[in-house]
Amino acid sequence: MWFLEVGIAVRLLAAAALWAAGSALARKYWSQAAFDRFLPILDLALIAYVSERLALFYLAYTLATWLIVNAVGRFKRARGFFFVLCCLVCALPFFYLRVSEIAPELPMLFTMTGIAYNMLKAVDAVYYVHYTSERVPLITYANYMLFFPVITAGPILRYRDFSASLARPMAITGESLTRDFKRLVRGYFKKVVVMALVTELLARVAAMPPRPWWSLAACLISYFLFWLDMSGYADIAIALGGFMGLKVPENFKKPLKAASFTQFWRNWHVSLTDWIREHIFVVLNGKRLTKYAGALIGFGTMVVMGLWHGFSLQFIVEGVFNGTILAVENLAGITTVSRKAKKPYLYFRRAVTALIFSFTAIFYTLDSTQLANVLRGFITL
Length: 381
What we know:
By secondary structure, the protein is an all-alpha fold. The chain has 16 helices and no strands. Helix 3 crosses helix 4 (52-71) and helix 12 (270-285) crosses helix 13 (291-309). The longest helix has 33 residues, at 174-206. It is globular and about 70 Å long.
């Protein structure tokens, strides 16, 4: 990805350091709010260095969605209808991009890298205005949408949390710089060094003659590769945000310790699963959930997440598979494990959860030929 290129990585670090120094001086001698006006310019400059078309798109998208976000609070009649309409309008570029994947003849006037994540941010701002009736300032919104550490990938920011962090940045100390620098190095080490080795290993295993043991090995390696990819970028984004005194949410909370699939998805890619559950299904159903409603929400969340990754049969199957498991856990009342459970049983549940997700991971890490070979291995003796 673009942030792995040396030139871009150096500029990201330099920009974070420049902003941190400027922010510290502004809080002491000027005004943090006044200084915040310049952050969108820095964001756009970094994006333009990667792609001028991408910067142009996000400038237009940010201005257009800001108008939409503030418009939703002005509708007094048919508020529900206009609320849904504003959400859909914010999501139009995302749907266009997904449709273009299955209809490549459609013209692409702009580069829309990262629109899947930024569409969710824009919709979250629509929710914020709809439920609070507060106005969203342009500068705050531009900082929120263009914040460069998460511009093309997660973790997914919430407007309420980001605006609070922007208004009161965290203090930057020697301890915080050391912590964030270690995390930055760890993230790049995962993405550059370890991933290269694991990717080569997975390619070799996935090309082996179809046998159950090779297929199982491919699943376990896919789990590890998938985690390296996503957690590595999250480490980089959180560290860059920390350098600037701005909080980027955690995206992984020790998923290996999850003893059920329901717990696993609360600990894996947390910002995405929480967003889909809270913004779609809980809003539709309310906060009081029966086990049947919980099963339906779990199933729907996974199907939507699969489609969010891509409009293809591969992701539909993956979404239905994950959703079915969540639905069964809710209906059977096994979404959690008691703290008093014996360790052998707890470890067994963790192992089963990890194995199930390992099977899911191959849908993200393997191409269609490799995937077919691995799936064939499970039924070949």
